[in-house]
Specification:
By secondary structure, the protein is α+β, with helices and mostly antiparallel strands. 34% of the residues lie in helices and 39% in strands. Helix 5 crosses helix 6. It is globular.
Length: 249
């Protein structure tokens, strides 16, 4: 009992310091993102300051995480003169979008232990592929997925785009790609000092399709067979109509 009490007393100062640590209060320029037929991506402005407006030797890391899903990566090889898919790997619980924006090089402003604890680095959001037999194949597909997600801007690292003024006010303009999927996106702001995370704040950003787009999307998801038949009939009708018009000329 005495040992437990002594341990509790030893932890009280640390808990008090954690409670006194400043937090980042921030806001977004967008209440939601609406995907329309003319959607070509968007720009999200994140801005804020530590609580109390006290200046310090701070760094800021901002992350935007999209809804998770399953991704499949297939390998194409030439077999008997024909290119075909021979192997595939599944990536389970992978975010549809993830970006990291920082005030400086990520490796320099975030301690490696803190990085792992909070899962900040883009590489931590690519799960290990399943359905493979050897470690060599696992590494091969993992590296390929990391390269493809970087090239498609699905998972990115934007170092140095967070502007910090006088150690207090921060802002960042984060590009959102055209490939956004509907769902709730999690925007997080990490306030750091000397590589240690002082606080983390979260805000949800809804991404929705417009009314017509949402209707078509839900129809394709919920009634896939009927949607496919309807699409085929519309294509046939459009082809017949075009043929009838040009044949009269």
């Amino acid at each position: 009992m005495r040992k437990a009490l002594a341990l509790l007393l030893a932890l009280l100062p640390a808990a008090g310091n954690a409670a006194d640590a400043p937090e980042a209060t921030f806001a977004l320029s967008l209440d939601e993102v609406e995907i329309t037929t003319g959607f070509h991506g968007a720009e999200l402005l994140v801005f804020g300051a530590p609580t109390g407006g006290t200046a310090g030797n701070y760094d800021v890391v901002i992350t935007v995480t999209g809804p998770p899903g399953r991704a499949t990566l297939r390998r194409k090889e030439q077999v008997a003169g024909i290119w075909m898919f021979t192997r595939e790997a599944q990536f389970v619980w992978m975010p549809s979008f993830y970006t990291v924006a920082t005030t400086g090089p990520l490796d320099e402003i975030v301690d490696p232990v803190e990085n792992l604890r909070h899962g900040i680095a883009p590489g931590t959001y690519i799960p290990a592929p399943i359905g493979l037999e050897t470690r060599e194949e696992t590494d091969l597909y993992f590296d390929a997925m990391r390269r493809l997600t970087s090239e498609s801007r699905r998972i990115t690292l934007e170092e140095g785009i967070v502007e910090l003024s006088q150690g207090v006010l921060f802002q960042a303009r984060i590009p959102l790609p055209v490939s956004l999927v509907p769902g709730t996106y999690d925007v997080r702001v990490f306030l750091l000092e000397d590589g240690v995370v002082l606080s983390r704040s979260d805000v949800d950003l809804p991404v929705r399709k417009s009314s017509l787009q949402r209707l078509i999307y839900r129809a394709a998801q919920d009634y896939g067979l009927l949607y496919g038949i309807a699409a085929a009939l519309i294509a046939l009708f459009a082809g017949w109509l075009a043929s009838a018009i040009f044949s009269r000329r």
